Please model this.
Amino acid sequence: MTFKQKVYKHYLELVNEKVQLVQQVLADLKESGANETKSTAGDKHETALAMLQIEQANKRDQLKEIQLQKAALEKIDATIVAPMIVNGSLVKTNKGYLFVSVALGKAVVEGITVIALSPQSPLGMRLMGLKAGDTAEINNMQYIIEMIS
Model:
């Protein structure tokens, strides 16, 4: 398994864990809501029920967002190596490794720090289409493309 495939696998597992976590929170909230409906404490009861419903709506929105990230990640074929930076590229720069995929932040894979960023992010947009040896500049920082996999 290549380093790129390990990075891809790591982020896919991370997204799957997020999905499971949010689904568990939703299940817990649903159970709390069921228990709350058994209570008849008046205004206090109504307020608690409304808060639960708001929290459930927020978690459902969060779940949708994570599922979109998962879907975008699953479209990537980690075995493909392009000569230029495309969605799914693992890019080694003078500043470290960048995984152009979905904005999932930093991770450490095999002791190497990798940052997963979206191709729609400011840096992601500057990197798209570049080749090894090219330079991208953002916020007065130069990223020299050393290798693309």
In short: The chain is about 50% helix and 20% strand. The longest strand covers residues 141-148.
